[in-house]
Design brief:
mainly alpha, two-stranded antiparallel sheet, 2 helices, 2 strands, 73% helix
Length: 85
Amino acid sequence: WSDMSKVIHKVNERKIKDYKEDIDTLLVFAGLFSAVFTMFLIESYQGLQQDPMEVMVALMQQVAIQAYSYSLNARFLNSTASPFS
């Protein structure tokens, strides 16, 4: 049994060593991936722009508010809405 125990111990030690190396490799890969992904996010974040449709909707809402606020008094056409909200 002693010889069998030594063989099993060696096999287990090799497996543990392999697992440690695999984990080290995965941790290095995860760190590199995280660094590259963060750099990509930083660079792409700087290039983000406001959606043109959102700007158009906001402008159309302002036009609608002003158009709704007009009142006709004798010879004058007055708006009670502020020019920009």
